[in-house]
Design brief:
- The protein is an alpha/beta fold and 223 residues long.
- The protein has two domains: 61 residues, no CATH class; 104 residues, Metalloproteases ("zincins"), catalytic domain (Zincin-like), CATH 3.30.2010.
- It is built from six helices and eleven strands.
- Strands 1-2-4-3 form a four-stranded mixed β-sheet. It has a four-stranded mixed β-sheet with strand order 5-6-8-7, with helices on one face.
- Helix 3 crosses helix 4.
- The radius of gyration is 20 Å and the shape is globular.
Length: 223
């Protein structure tokens, strides 16, 4: 649906209320609606929020973007909020190690940016999994909420997601680039969905109970 020049994606679901989203990094607009909701009602709802939608899109447009990585010396790499300067060397196998403010990346001669990115992404996966294994039990104990399983994957529009029926949590690989408290916030956020499905007042109260400063962490995460 095109509303006021904005492409709005309509997702019909078994829900009672409408939910509007403007998703990073490009400001894609989507609205989740009940299965039998009329298009007239949907359009009226979106138009009532159009000022907010445009402000969110403008905010995303102003945010600095990380240039596409080539994984060559001089580029930067982030791990848990700290910046490292990439130094690339050549050898028989891929490796990545940190020393001071440097990230020492060893690659095979003739390797492409795509192959280097694949290796670095898997390196991030290992770093993230190790931190989740340390952090998740702490929040499960604190809240009394336990997931049956968790997994990591690269996502472009969400930091995490929770499959409530299967009690499974997915966490975005990009979290390894952010400060650890950002990962902790997303873990708490997804665990909270095991008790409260929607982002309502009860959900916010649950986050307030276990992480009173979660709003500041969320803001830092999305900058």
């Amino acid at each position: 649906m095109i509303i006021d020049g904005i492409d709005v994606r309509i997702n019909r679901k078994k829900i009672k209320n409408m939910h509007l989203y403007v998703k990073p990094p490009d400001g894609v607009v989507s609205v989740s609606v009940p299965l039998r909701m009329s298009e007239v009602t949907i359009e009226r709802f979106v138009r009532s929020k159009i000022g907010w939608v445009k402000k969110q899109q403008e905010k995303f447009a102003r945010q600095p973007r990380q240039a596409p990585r080539q994984y060559i010396s001089g580029e930067t790499l982030y791990l848990w909020g700290k910046q490292y300067f990439l130094q690339v060397d050549y050898g028989n196998k891929y490796s990545l190690s940190l020393s001071g403010n440097s990230a020492l990346l060893t690659v095979r001669s003739g390797s492409t940016a795509a192959l280097r990115e694949k290796f670095v992404r898997e390196w991030y996966r290992g770093q993230l999994k190790d931190e989740i294994a340390r952090t998740l039990p702490k929040w499960e104990t604190a809240t009394g909420l336990k997931c049956d399983s968790w997994q990591t994957k690269y996502m472009t529009s969400k930091w995490g997601t929770c499959h409530i029926t299967k009690r499974k949590i997915w966490l975005n690989l990009e979290l390894a680039k952010k400060p650890v408290e950002c990962l902790e916030y997303i873990i708490l956020h997804e665990l909270a969905h095991l008790r409260v499905r929607n982002h309502n007042a009860a959900f916010a109260a649950l986050l307030d109970k276990y992480m009173p400063f979660w709003r500041e962490v969320k803001k830092r995460l999305n900058e």
